[in-house]
Specification:
The protein is of the alpha/beta class. The chain contains 15 helices and 16 strands. Strand 9, helix 9 and strand 10 form a beta-alpha-beta unit. Helix 1 packs across helix 3.
């Protein structure tokens, strides 16, 4: 029960505020059981409906969770330390292959694009009341989506993929709802879901994307109300949704029309694999395309399309917050698109030469690795901590797998974007040597 802490209040808002104050101060700890509604109502001298309204407010805010007859408890707090802090800082003399950044040499120069939009802004300044989505941006984004077979839908603009995903989840889900997420998966997303008061349900994947059996389990057994899938350039494994896998998942999702499907295609612009979208099978869906990986992380622009209801909710909530994503940035992206500033095939080939080269070099040394697309290679290991430490000693700083996994086995992520091809063999030697000690003991 609540121990020494005394919940007070006569109105539902006062009771809810009292519980929140206790949680905020630490007097009510995560997992602590709250008094039954009738018991608390009798203690406070109020109608049980008043306490029920207070508890309902607290559930909606993600402060408490209710498990039927087992009562209401204070929710576990989201991690206060982001997974991004689980990293290895490369000291002097150590090569850093763990940051996950694109190769700056493959990003387009922004000077001309920014100069062009600045001159236009001098003639047509951006003012309050303008449409949130630039007309040229919407036209080009929609044309590219049409070319890839993405179902028709309006276009919105957000400040990156994670901003879009957060807004879409908030538009449909309530605290306590379950969300199926890839495991291993994007660390920032694995932080975001519980921070919104939602319950992440891990879904295993292979090089072709989420495993259908795992998705079915998450939807049917865990009651997931949303599924988040990376179409291509999955982080950290490099998985890309294959045609046959997409057919299986679409067939499965057709039996769950109430599930919200979110597709993250942040690899657009640096991948030469075809897109196999899942959208349109369920009632509510979105596909998000960020320009960060191909055009520059600091642009903070992503195009979002989906069913009309979802996009309208996102735009409506956006209007009450930041209002819109800078038209200057939107128009800079339009200029980059119109001028063909990024050759996706050339960029994909550059990353592919390094990524495929490292996977092949590791295979020759008996080390299995994954990297079907993008700039990362995922290496499953038996001893994650030991592998990271031995690689650091050998002069290589990799990303610990703990940043990216829930139930998945240990591993390390290697970003190849900054690696010259000549360095692939020495890196493969170091990885093989770092993995070998544990494997030798396990076979001894």
């Amino acid at each position: 029960m609540v121990g020494e802490y005394r919940i007070v209040g006569r109105r539902a808002s006062e009771i809810a505020a009292s519980v929140e104050a206790g949680v905020g101060s630490g007097a009510l700890e995560p997992g602590q059981l709250l008094p039954p509604m009738r018991e608390l109502a009798a203690r406070l001298g109020v109608n049980p409906n008043t306490v029920a309204a207070a508890y309902r407010t607290l559930r909606e805010r993600g402060v408490i969770e209710t498990a039927g007859r087992r009562g209401s408890r204070v929710r576990p707090r989201p991690a206060t330390t982001a997974r991004g802090s689980i990293r290895i800082d490369a000291p002097a003399g150590v090569r850093d292959v763990g940051k996950g950044n694109p190769d700056p040499a493959l990003l387009p120069p922004l000077g001309e694009a920014l100069a062009v939009v600045a001159r236009r802004a001098a003639q047509e300044p951006g003012l309050y009341g303008q449409a949130p989505v630039d007309e040229g941006f919407a036209r080009l984004a929609r044309a590219a989506l049409d070319a890839d077979g993405v179902p028709d839908g309006p276009v919105a603009v957000t400040s990156g993929s994670l901003d879009a995903i957060e807004r879409v989840l908030a538009a449909h889900l309530r605290p306590g709802d379950a969300v199926a997420v890839e495991d291993p998966g994007w660390g920032a997303l694995l932080d975001l879901v519980p921070a919104l008061g939602l319950k992440p349900v891990p879904v295993a994947l292979d090089d072709d994307g989420p495993l259908p059996g795992e998705v079915e389990r998450a939807l049917r057994d865990a009651g997931a109300r949303a599924l988040i899938v990376t179409d291509r350039v999955q982080n950290p494994t490099g998985a890309a949704l294959g045609a046959a896998r997409a057919v299986e998942l679409r067939r499965m999702l057709a039996a769950h029309p109430g599930v919200l499907v979110i597709e993250d295609d942040h690899g657009y612009g640096l991948v030469d694999l075809p897109l196999h979208p899942l959208g349109g099978v369920t009632d509510h869906w979105v596909l998000v395309r960020s320009v960060s990986k191909a055009y520059g992380p600091d642009l903070r622009v992503a195009a979002l399309t989906g069913d009309a209801v979802t996009v309208d909710r996102v735009l409506g909530r956006q209007r009450l917050g930041p209002g819109w994503v800078s038209h200057l940035l939107q128009r800079a992206v339009v200029h980059l698109w119109e001028t063909g500033a990024v050759d996706a095939r050339a960029v994909a080939a550059a990353y592919g030469e390094r990524r495929d080269g490292l996977v092949a070099a590791l295979a020759r040394r008996g080390v299995a690795a994954h990297g079907r697309s993008g700039m990362n290679v995922w290496v499953p290991v038996a001893d994650e901590t030991g592998t990271v430490a031995r690689l650091l000693h050998a002069g290589w700083a990799v990303a610990p797998g703990a940043r990216f996994r829930m139930a998945a086995g240990p591993g390390v992520r290697i970003t190849v974007s900054g690696l010259p091809v000549a360095d692939l063999e020495p890196l493969a030697d170091a990885v093989a040597a770092a993995v070998e000690p544990m494997e030798a003991r396990s076979h001894g």
